[in-house]
Design brief:
Shape: globular
Radius of gyration: 18 Å
Strand order of the largest sheet: 5-4-1-13-14-15
Number of strands: 15
Helix content: 25-40%
Order of helices and strands: EEEHEHEHEHEEHEEEHEHEHEHE
């Protein structure tokens, strides 16, 4: 029995809009006792907020432990690989919670690390403060590289665009944790005591969800409900194991 590793934005919902077939698919997995984990690059929400968002959209029986985010993976990666506890953070409550769970101190200057997640309230000053810390020698770490964030039928600027800006300004490349980078998969598999052959990666984004599986030799299913469509496969040269139009196609 394989565990579904399921993306959220663009796969389960788009902003506050349900994606057709998503609730039915989760109901099906729950009814058959098929295991699943929500693996999201979105570092903005806490586990509690992620659960409440899905319950508000009509999903049932969603638990906090169902979620694994790029913020959680980032905090664990830093704690396990580097000394120092002072983080300058660009991000929202999901990243703040993850860093504090690993006993990091959130500081404005003299940081050991600059950790960049999506911050929808960021200002020019905050971006510049992040740059100051990077230029002063803080290690530059990014939760995720998503260029776009699906939102109610259109797209908002994703964290990857912010990372590109700070890389360009600093001349320093960030260590990137989230999909499609292997780091997040390795941390997830270790955390959940799974192997690559035990999982199926399910998502809408060829550049993140599907690329992660394609490069790691993991089974993937692309659903054409978010960032990319089937016509993008040849252009991006990322090849899913299976392509579907609607998650209802996976209900047997």
């Amino acid at each position: 029995m394989k565990t579904y590793i399921i993306d959220l934005d663009g796969t389960m919902y788009s902003g506050s809009t349900n994606i057709d077939g998503a609730r039915e698919f989760i109901d099906y997995l729950q009814s058959k006792n098929l295991p699943y984990i929500f693996l999201t690059n979105n570092a903005t929400r806490t586990k509690k907020q992620a659960k409440e968002h899905m319950l508000n959209l009509g999903f049932k029986n969603i638990k906090e432990e169902d979620f694994f985010t790029s913020a959680m993976a980032t905090a664990k990666f830093i704690a396990k690989n580097y000394p120092g506890k002072k983080c300058f953070m660009l991000g929202e409550s999901g990243l703040e919670e993850a860093l504090k769970e690993w006993n990091f101190d959130i500081v404005q200057e003299n940081a050991n690390f600059v950790v960049i997640g999506l911050d929808r309230n960021a200002t020019y000053k905050k971006y510049s403060d992040a740059l100051h810390n990077i230029l002063a020698g803080a290690k530059f770490i990014a939760t995720n590289p998503d260029r776009l964030l699906a939102n109610n039928g259109t797209f908002d600027i994703g964290n990857g665009a912010v990372i590109d800006m700070l890389e360009y300004a600093s001349g320093i490349e960030a260590i990137k944790i989230g999909k499609p980078y292997q780091i997040i998969l390795d941390i997830l598999l270790e955390e959940k005591k799974l192997k690559k052959e035990d999982i199926i990666l399910l998502g809408d984004n060829l550049e993140t969800d599907i690329k992660l599986g394609y490069e790691a030799d993991v089974e993937t299913i692309m659903v054409c409900s978010g960032v990319h469509s089937e016509k993008d496969i040849a252009r991006l040269k990322v090849y899913p194991s299976k392509v579907i139009k609607n998650l209802k196609e996976l209900i047997k």
